[in-house]
Amino acid sequence: MPSTSVVTISRHINDQERRHPDATGAFSNLLYDLALAAKIVSREVNQAGLFDLLGSAGETNVQGETVQKLDQFAHEVIYKAMDHAGHLCCMASEECEDIIAIPDRFPIGEYVLLFDPLDGSSNIDINVSIGTIFSIHRKISSGERGTLEDCLQRGTEQLAAGYVLYGSSTMLVYTTGMGVHGFTLDPSIGEFLLSHPDIRIPDPGARLYSVNEAYRDRWSDEQRRLVDHMKGTGRYSARYIGSLVADFHRTLLRGGIFMYPADSKSPEGKLRLLYEAAPMAMLAREAGGRASDGVRDILDIEPQSLHQRTPLFVGSAPLVDLAERFLAGTSEI
Ligand code: AHM
Ligand code: MG
Question: CATH topology of 9-196 equal to that of 208-327?
């Protein structure tokens, strides 16, 4: 018999809202809108394997329409789901160089949404999991409309963070600072159902390290020593998908450490602070883990620009601590 005790994401968001007696409901509505956008993107991602039949990006499909790149499509779906409800003062997306204003004809709200609409999109063609990442801040600027200042806030100021994983099933995982909760999309009823309440990064969890070792020659000596140490103990296993949301999701559920260090080709690292590293850092902290750039906590970094990059070490707290010690050259090994 299927279970009758189901918690939809809407019910969960409502329950969380009730813990804030002064809540206006705007923040909850913002999260519902995001969940709706996630379902639309999920539907489209699941069709991606049919692109060869229906026409790939840039080509004209059977209806004579130009087929859009999926990351651009995801950007537009999220933007259009979020631009008109009066919750946001501005947005920022990996797909746009500048901040995205709310159109004049729509009301302005008190929140800021930063998002990576479809991270790891180079994996679409080979059916590897990809994801959407989001981060929500409160408006801090004094003018009516949102400004860059509203987007350039430290990770500690995030009100909510999460991701949607388009994998063997679609999952939405989010935190508002009261634990990390995971929902699995039931496509037959079109609802995200609570499947992973109060996720904690296992500690001690699986000793998994996750890094692109092909870049070893570009790493610092300290980074090489860290990975050599992990291999030398004989206690670690390696996993690397090359898709941040999928690598992070595994780390959240199984433990271990995901690393995208700085290297000689990318001295600042590859991943983006505001809509990739910071939301993952909030999720990790809420699940009992940590995220660092190798020196500082990711959540403490003062952003200087919208698309700023950062090295990222995230996962079980003892392993992130270990990485910091190796990078500082202070480990006994
Ligand atoms: P993207 O934002 O262009 O999709 O790139 C980000 C992706 C992450 O999902 C992943 O962690 C990383 O790039 C993998 O990079 P690499 O192929 O250098 O290992
Ligand atoms: Mg990305």
Answer: no
Closest C-alpha residue for ligand 1 atom 17: 242
Look at ligand 1, atom 3, and give the residue with the nearest C-alpha.
Answer: 120
Q: What is the pLDDT of residues 136-177, one digit of tens each?
A: 999 999 988 999 999 999 999 999 999 999 999 999 999 999
Q: What superfamily would CATH give domain 9-196? A: Fructose-1,6-Bisphosphatase, subunit A, domain 1 (3.30.540.10)
Q: How far is the CA of 184 from the centre of ligand 2 (A)?
A: 22
Q: What distance in Å separates the CA atoms of residue 170 and residue 195, rounded to the nearest whole number?
A: 11
Which amino acid would we find at residue 49?
G
| Ligand lying nearest the CA atom of residue 117 | 2
Domain ranges of the chain: 9-196, 208-327
Question: Is residue 136 within 8 Å of 160, Cβ to Cβ?
Answer: yes
Which bound ligand lies closest to the C-alpha atom of 218? 1
Burial 131-160 (b: 16+ CB within 10 A, else e): bbbbbbbebbeeeeebbeebbbbbbeebbb
Distance 277 CA to ligand 2 centre (A): 10
State which amino acid sits at residue 208: L
- Kindly report the CATH class assigned to 208-327: alpha beta
Distance 245 CA to ligand 1 centre (A): 10
Q: Which residues line ligand 1 (CB under 6 A)?
A: 119-121, 212, 242-244, 247, 260, 270
Dmax over CA atoms of the chain, in Å, equals 65
Q: Pairing between strand 312-315 and 257-260?
A: antiparallel
pLDDT digits (tens, 9 = 90+) for 265-310: 999 999 999 999 999 999 999 999 999 999 999 999 999 999 999 9
Residue nearest to ligand 1 atom 14, measured at CA = 242
